[in-house]
Amino acid sequence: MKKWAANISILAWALLVSACASTAPDTVLVNAKVFTSNPAQPWAQALAIRGDRVVAVGDTSTIAALAGSATRRIDTGGRTIVPGFNDAHTHIAITPSADRLNLPFDPTLAQIAGVLREQIKTSPKGRLILGDFGQVAWGDASFTRAWLDAIAPDHQVWLTAFTGHGALLNSAALAAIDYDDTMREPEGGRILRDDRGRLNGRLEEYGLALAQRRMGMKTDPDEVVRIYRQYAAEARALGLTTTQLLGEALPAADASKRLVEADLPMRWRYFRYPIRLGGNDTMDSRPLLPPQPTPLIDMRGMKWILDGTPIERLGAMREPYTDAPGYRGRLNFSPETIDLFVGWAYGSEDPLAVHAFGDAAIEAYVAAVERAGRPEVWRAKRPRIEHGDLLAPDLIPRVKAMGMLVVQNPTHFTFPEIFLERYGKERLAWMQPMKSLLDNGIPLAIGSDGPMNPFENILAAITHPANPNEALTREQAVSAYTTGAAFAEFQEKDKGQLVVGMLADLAVLSADVFTVPEAQMVATRSVLTMLGGKIVHDAGAIH
Ligand SMILES: [Zn+2]
Prior knowledge:
It contains 18 helices and 27 strands. It has a six-stranded mixed beta sheet, with helices on one face. A six-stranded mixed beta sheet has the order 9-10-11-12-14-13. The two termini are 47 Å apart. Mean pLDDT is 94; it is low at 1-8 and 10-21. The structure holds zinc ion. The site of zinc ion has 4 residues, from loops.
């Protein structure tokens, strides 16, 4: 009897504890400057979290009073908290292990040759060697496979334009991915040849994308997992909790397996990237099953690239380049092909993201969207313009009418001298809009598409070196990186703001990005990153 009573009291105690557990928060973060990114209540001092969600937002005394005996209490010492950053457009290079050339930005051919000659003294024969170049090398006609072979005949040398839209490979690198003189070009790409029809080593657009895919598929799966793990560790230390991958080397099915295997505390969105070989069969065109192999991995969406960038003058322009009279760049696809993939998106639930840089490319995309169907249907599909640099004022109302959104990449604003040469003053005055988009009610997200450091991108967004009239406020920049990025992937009900009911994805920052001097912005880090209420990065600065 006594024993039975004791059991009852244990039961009652257990019920009481579980009742408390269901009301008291697991964690409270107090004494903070919280930017919620919720326009109705942008600032707070404290947050309470239960399970994976935010359950209260308010001042420190109110939130502290919610804590129970089992609640973890984190006093941030007045630090700034933001929603976890969501990089709406980035890439993770997948290559076999390689040596990397330490080249200056935009190197000359002599500089590349010098660094490469040094590198091959220590790299074993057959080793893959990677490097980046810019407009100087690209503009030099002697920058070919033969030139590279003469310097490094016994290594696989793979040099990529920093824009990602062109490359030069030597003979060994071409052979490693089965590129030979008989091969056909994939649709939307060029595999350049000399006047005798032999590959000259230069690849453009989908000619490069196919090469990267073959290289990615040759990469050992364990190495792929290692690359994802390394990326995610760096990202969490920068306060990133979501990464959207927009056009990757690995086919979606392979990437999905490797991301599941890597099992990382990070939310992933992977847009598959179809490559049409010979204009017919299409690699990666079908939506992947399952679309969400784990709750953190979402494989829905497809990405297409309509044109290049102005660095190589591959952006498709309505008016000629200022520094190449009569030349307007080009579109990668015919209007028929654009109609085809835009039509797929209209007829399915699969989100559409299209790289469109020049005004002719943006107009071709918008026109295909207009042809494909009704605005009210499109508005629910949120077709994405990736970059949208030359989104001219006359296109803004059309973009808005179709419910399209823009994912912009602020570190691309840091080449004002090149833009002035390519476009001239008049186009520079309206290019790379951000403020005008927000003023016109067009949703805006920020993705890095370059250095993953969000603080580097925020700095470029608030200064906008190419077109200061289009700079954002700091609050707008952080919101585009969080709320805007969540909207771009249909996740705005679950994340992107620190409000009651949303996922507790957040970063406690080392500096207050809303007031820190510009010169110190880039050095900001996350001292504590949480994903769904769990600590996934802790720099040890808070106790
Ligand atoms: Zn990109």
